[in-house]
């Protein structure tokens, strides 16, 4: 049975989530602070961490950073408030498996947990074989067609490719597509998140080590390069590699040989390298933080993944694909977007790009009961419903606090059964959902 550690300081809420996950076949331990979370999470046998963002002695992001330094393969799901998209985006950059927003929707939670654990399994088995098209959308706009042309052009060559773009713009998807259309597509595709490689262990993660190479090296390991032999290695957030690892990487690329840490034996490798960054790598080269020779070696060809706000022509195509996928995955009847929603989508900035859109559409699919996605199930960021400062603010805030407490109490008493809660409050389910979202319940 998979073991989940849930870190949440609201104990009644924590109990409800724990019960729900246990009913669905998981073993759940709980902790109520950063300190206790770290203690519990580092114990043997934990497969997944779910942590709230706001904790009494710190934040979920601090925990995420610590867990990623401790074991970067341990998946971490961050719970944020519905409107904290900035934190959610940051968490993904820091290596979170996924984020979910409050109020937690049970189906969404279960799906996210399942997906995070599946990914953990794949990592473990290192079964990086060829994969299907993964619902890859090319897009109809001329920019999208240009990117696709470049992918098809460069894929069959062995050139190193650097993929530039903001977080969530599809850099990893592009690199998988390059692998898929390359002659190496029967070989492994190994994705390495350089942002989560600690300085001390980067060398051994990338190239492996022999038993006894350093304290704690109890057995000989295979590094990512060796695992990718005959295939493609994808170095995500390559700008985060420390200087020492950059030197080793350059050597591996130039000599096509690696040496495990602590070994004198050289191993020949045949690996194609794709790298991604959402930083200005050239700027880092200028500042002396990234080696110029490595930069040119990685940048034999470059592809720019566009931010979603600059892809207005294809934006609804993505939204509709995510809606279709969500309906299928969640066993919901087919739905469409209302005109108002489409308008808001086109005006929104999408700081988290395609990943944010996929998550918002998935959540809207869960919340919407009709066959049309309406404004009511979108976050305030998109609908601009956020209240602006006014003289009534304090009185209003007080009333809202009261209302929030009452709703929370009744929800808890009903074990988060929304129909019962709405009935007891004398409001309909939709109003309840809106209020829950408003108050982050
Ligand atoms: N071409 C595409 N077609 C369909 N969905 C896509 C496409 N590109 C990206 N996505 C969706 O967006 C999500 C994020 O994409 P991906 O992980 O490739 O982004 P990224 O730029 O590598 O993100 P990060 O900067 O956080 O590493 C994917 O999980 C997928 O759901």
Automatic annotation (TrEMBL):
<dbReference type="Pfam" id="PF00072">
    <property type="entry name" value="Response_reg"/>
</dbReference>
<dbReference type="Pfam" id="PF00158">
    <property type="entry name" value="Sigma54_activat"/>
</dbReference>
<feature type="domain" description="Response regulatory">
    <location>
        <begin position="3"/>
        <end position="117"/>
    </location>
</feature>
<keyword id="KW-0805">Transcription regulation</keyword>
<keyword id="KW-0547">Nucleotide-binding</keyword>
<keyword id="KW-0067">ATP-binding</keyword>
<dbReference type="InterPro" id="IPR002078">
    <property type="entry name" value="Sigma_54_int"/>
</dbReference>
<dbReference type="InterPro" id="IPR002197">
    <property type="entry name" value="HTH_Fis"/>
</dbReference>
<dbReference type="InterPro" id="IPR027417">
    <property type="entry name" value="P-loop_NTPase"/>
</dbReference>
<feature type="modified residue" description="4-aspartylphosphate">
    <location>
        <position position="52"/>
    </location>
</feature>
<dbReference type="InterPro" id="IPR001789">
    <property type="entry name" value="Sig_transdc_resp-reg_receiver"/>
</dbReference>
<feature type="domain" description="Sigma-54 factor interaction">
    <location>
        <begin position="137"/>
        <end position="366"/>
    </location>
</feature>
<dbReference type="InterPro" id="IPR058031">
    <property type="entry name" value="AAA_lid_NorR"/>
</dbReference>
<dbReference type="InterPro" id="IPR009057">
    <property type="entry name" value="Homeodomain-like_sf"/>
</dbReference>
<dbReference type="InterPro" id="IPR011006">
    <property type="entry name" value="CheY-like_superfamily"/>
</dbReference>
<protein>
    <submittedName>
        <fullName>Sigma-54 dependent transcriptional regulator</fullName>
    </submittedName>
</protein>
<dbReference type="InterPro" id="IPR003593">
    <property type="entry name" value="AAA+_ATPase"/>
</dbReference>
<keyword id="KW-0804">Transcription</keyword>
<dbReference type="Pfam" id="PF02954">
    <property type="entry name" value="HTH_8"/>
</dbReference>
<dbReference type="InterPro" id="IPR025943">
    <property type="entry name" value="Sigma_54_int_dom_ATP-bd_2"/>
</dbReference>
<dbReference type="InterPro" id="IPR025662">
    <property type="entry name" value="Sigma_54_int_dom_ATP-bd_1"/>
</dbReference>
<dbReference type="Pfam" id="PF25601">
    <property type="entry name" value="AAA_lid_14"/>
</dbReference>
<keyword id="KW-0597">Phosphoprotein</keyword>
């Amino acid at each position: 049975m998979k073991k989940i550690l849930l870190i949440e300081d609201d104990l009644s809420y924590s109990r409800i989530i724990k019960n729900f996950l246990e009913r669905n076949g998981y073993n759940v331990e709980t902790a109520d602070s950063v300190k206790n979370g770290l203690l519990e999470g580092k114990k043997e046998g934990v497969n997944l961490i779910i942590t709230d963002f706001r904790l009494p002695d710190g934040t979920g992001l601090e925990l995420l950073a610590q867990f990623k330094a401790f074991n970067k393969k341990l998946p971490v799901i961050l719970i944020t408030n519905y409107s904290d998209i900035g934190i959610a985006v940051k968490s993904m950059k820091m290596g979170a498996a996924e984020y979910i927003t409050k109020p937690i929707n049970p189906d969404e939670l279960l799906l996210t947990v399942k997906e995070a654990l599946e990914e953990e399994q794949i990592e473990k088995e290192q079964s990086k074989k060829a994969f299907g098209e993964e619902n890859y959308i090319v897009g109809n706009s001329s920019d999208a067609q240009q990117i696709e042309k470049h992918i098809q052009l460069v894929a069959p060559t062995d050139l190193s490719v650097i993929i530039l773009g903001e977080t969530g713009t599809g850099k990893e998807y592009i690199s998988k597509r390059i692998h898929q259309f390359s002659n190496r597509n029967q070989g492994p595709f190994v994705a390495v998140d350089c942002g989560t490689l600690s300085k001390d262990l980067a060398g051994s993660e990338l190239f492996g080590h022999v038993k006894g190479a350093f304290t704690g090296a109890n057995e000989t390991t295979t590094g990512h390069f060796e695992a990718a032999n005959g295939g493609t290695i994808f170095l995500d957030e390559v700008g985060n590699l420390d200087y020492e690892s950059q030197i080793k990487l350059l050597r591996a690329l130039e000599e096509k040989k690696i040496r495990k840490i602590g070994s004198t034996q050289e191993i020949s490798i045949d690996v194609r390298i794709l790298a991604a960054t959402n930083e200005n790598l050239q700027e880092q080269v200028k500042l002396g933080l990234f080696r110029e020779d490595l930069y040119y070696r990685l940048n034999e060809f470059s592809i720019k993944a566009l931010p979603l706000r600059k892809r207005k022509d294809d934006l609804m195509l993505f939204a509709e694909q995510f809606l279709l996928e969500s309906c299928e995955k969640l066993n919901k009847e087919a739905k469409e977007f209302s005109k108002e929603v489409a308008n808001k989508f086109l005006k929104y900035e999408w700081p988290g790009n395609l990943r944010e859109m996929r998550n918002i559409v998935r959540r809207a699919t869960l919340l919407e009961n009709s066959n049309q996605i309406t404004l009511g199930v979108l976050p305030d960021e998109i609908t601009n419903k956020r209240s602006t400062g006014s003289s009534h603010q304090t009185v209003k805030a007080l009333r809202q606090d009261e209302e929030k407490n009452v709703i929370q109490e009744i929800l808890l008493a009903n074990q988060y059964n929304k129909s019962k809660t709405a009935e007891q409050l004398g409001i309909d389910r939709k109003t309840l959902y809106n209020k829950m979202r408003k108050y982050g319940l």
